[in-house]
Model the fold of this input.
Amino acid sequence: MISDEEILKLPKDNFQKKLDDIIKKNTAAGVRPKLLLHSCCAPCSSYCLEYLRQYFDITDFYYNPNITEEAEYRKRTDEIKRLITVMNSEDETLPIGFEEGRYDSREFFDAVKGFESEPEGGLRCVKCFRLRLYETARVAAEGHFDCFTTTLTISPLKNASVLNHIGEEAGREFGVMFLPSDFKKKEGYNRSVELSEKYGLYRQDYCGCGFSKAERQGCSV
Ligand code: SF4
Done:
């Protein structure tokens, strides 16, 4: 097991190619695996759901105790639920399920304790990703899903190597396959912007925690 400092230095890899290969293999075998998709927000999920529902039976899993202001958490939760309802009504043949995780921001504060002042993209985020991906892996194993992954890799601000490494770590821990991803590839991020406009989605201008909000506003907390 490598340290979190080393995780931040991992080289880039082609995770989209790895996902393409898995999808190709499943399609050839006529298999549609059950996927638990950790979802960070509606805008990021829009493209991931549109793309992945063609190949997987998806349950969207909303576990984000990192959104430290409860009103903001509720707003983002309502938006992902609304998006899924609309997408399901547009195509009833590929239904998307929804499951909300616990919401207790103390889980986030405990996980990042001692790393609060790290900049976005640093060690605080490694801890935050681990919290969310381990819980997703646990729920995926408990629910007998075939695999899990996260919409977080669509963000140009998030390091796909770090997320994929932690996802694999979590998958090993709970005995469930982590699906490699880098959803910003194949114009995924641009498509999420288009879909956000199409569905009139609320697009927040900071990642989620109070620290990231303060960073965007140019102050420290
Ligand atoms: S900036 Fe985003 S990923 Fe990083 S700790 Fe805050 S909520 Fe988590």
